[in-house]
Amino acid sequence: MIRVLETAEDDLVDGYRFYESQEPGVGEHFLNSIFADIDSLRRYAGIHKIIRGKYRMLARKFPFAIFYTIADDMIEVRAVLDLRRNPTWIRKRLDRE
Fold this sequence. Notes:
Layout: E1 2-4, H1 6-22, H2 26-39, H3 41-44, E2 49-51, E3 54-58, E4 64-71, E5 74-82, H4 87-96
């Protein structure tokens, strides 16, 4: 089972707003693409590199990473972060999770 935490949902909303402000319709494409990546965790969870205690899966179509943990049979998506952000900001954000 996959659970998207509220903090990751907030990240998705931020990404949607950014891309939608660039060109209408791109925000929807962003969400569809990221959710397809998240859905792929049903098959590939646990094979990704661990960064700051979380698995990191790189998104296929956008410069984002999906950070998740696994406990028992639950995959928790903890953050969906824009990798163009300052690395210090990304580290601090991940340490809060």
